[in-house]
Write a structure and sequence with these properties.
- By secondary structure, the chain is of the alpha+beta class.
- It contains six helices and 16 strands.
- The strands form two sheets. The chain has an eight-stranded mixed sheet. Strands 6-7-8-5-9-12-11-10 form an eight-stranded mixed sheet, with helices on both faces.
- InterPro entries: Glyas_Bleomycin-R_OHBP_Dase (IPR029068).
- This is Extradiol dioxygenase.
């Protein structure tokens, strides 16, 4: 990805920006604005490992993530009383709430983000009130693949809609040639979006793919406000780095997000040091007042309520969190997780109240 996004028409910027492909013109690292200049050895938090979704709609979730997007599923996973009690403690779940745990993952693609699906035994408030792309909070999970046109049909045939029609458009390379982008932002269960994205013209996809041409989740996005403070949390507490930080004018009702015409937003792409996937996208609207959902963007509310990161030094993360003034939900405890194994685990909150889990493997 290179920095010459001035070559792109504003009408296409929102789709390109929001899917972390700000202007990918060739594979050479010197021309790739998102290529790591840092080293994995210097990382404190590693790439996003797990996205935890709370739901009461197991069948809809399996229809979307397993049947349409091709993820493998394990579950329900049997937990010991100790594991359940520790999860309740770490995630601040009510004593009268119970759940079943399912693990959704991309078979053969260990770099893909895991989904930890908590199927609750009773309804809880929803993080989002609708699929409106101007609502604050967790927005999406991104799924790179080799044929979004086919995937678009598959997902729509299963009964899921999208924010807009599939969009296809050329992106110029420095030599004047172009390659095609196909992408759709689907309306998934629990008012969470799933983004299908294909890069043509011989370009590598946005994350590793399996033998069926399906990949991801490769990234996750949020709509935020007060982005200076918010991004400072991810860089100062977790040691992540901002690879790209731009201001874009949306494609309006012609774009993938289907925003009001003329919308301007800050768009920041955040990676673990040295990483090439497992990143986060943050959108902060400049000339539009975002919609504020009634409920907190956190477990146990329904939807995407937690990101989980492996860390190389959990004590340093806690020190950073105290210096930043973060809300530390739970100091480190020893846990045997069904998703990431034996680890020292802690939880804290981002500035918007979103739950962050960190673990240092044993």
């Amino acid at each position: 990805m290179i920095s010459k996004c001035d070559f792109l028409p504003f009408g296409k910027l929102v789709a390109v920006a929001f899917l972390s492909i700000a202007c990918i013109c060739n594979a050479a690292a010197s021309n790739d604005a998102l290529a790591p200049k840092s080293k994995v050895e210097d990382a404190l938090a590693l790439p996003l490992h797990t996205a935890t979704i709370a739901t009461v709609s197991l069948q809809q979730s399996l229809l979307f993530y397993r049947d349409a997007l091709g993820l493998a599923v394990k579950g329900p996973i049997t937990l010991t009383d100790k594991q359940t009690a520790q999860q309740r403690q770490l995630w601040q779940l009510p004593k009268d709430l119970n759940w079943q745990t399912y693990h959704l993952f991309r078979k053969g693609v260990p770099e893909a983000i895991n989904i930890q699906l908590l199927v609750l035994d009773k309804a809880m408030p929803s993080i989002h009130d609708s699929w409106d792309s101007t609502e604050l909070g967790p927005f999406s999970l991104g799924f790179p693949n080799t044929d979004t046109i086919a995937l678009d049909k598959t997902i729509r045939d299963t009964g899921f809609g999208a924010l807009n029609a599939l969009e296809s458009y050329p992106i110029p390379r420095p030599d004047g040639s172009t390659y095609q982008i196909d992408e759709t932002i689907f309306n998934g269960p629990d008012f969470l979006h799933g983004v299908a994205i294909t890069r043509g013209g011989g370009m590598a996809q946005l994350g590793p793919i399996d033998g069926n041409g399906l990949g991801g989740p490769a990234y996750s996005a949020q709509i935020i406000e007060d982005s200076e403070q918010h991004l400072k949390f991810y860089t100062d507490v977790l040691g992540l780095e901002i690879r790209s930080d731009r201001e874009f004018k949306s494609a309006g009702d012609k774009g993938a997000m289907n925003l009001p015409n003329g919308t301007v937003f800050r768009f920041a792409i955040v990676y673990s040091k040295g990483a090439t996937t497992g990143h986060m996208l943050f959108v902060d609207f400049r000339n539009l007042k975002p919609k504020r959902p009634k409920n907190s963007p956190s477990l146990p509310n329904l939807g995407l309520g937690m990101w989980t990161y492996p860390v190389t030094d959990i004590k340093q993360v806690i020190t950073n969190a105290k210096q930043f003034g973060s809300d530390i939900v739970q100091m480190p405890i020893d846990v045997n997780s069904p998703i990431y194994g034996k680890a020292s685990v802690a939880t804290l909150r981002a500035p918007n109240g979103f739950l962050i889990e960190v673990f240092e493997a044993k």
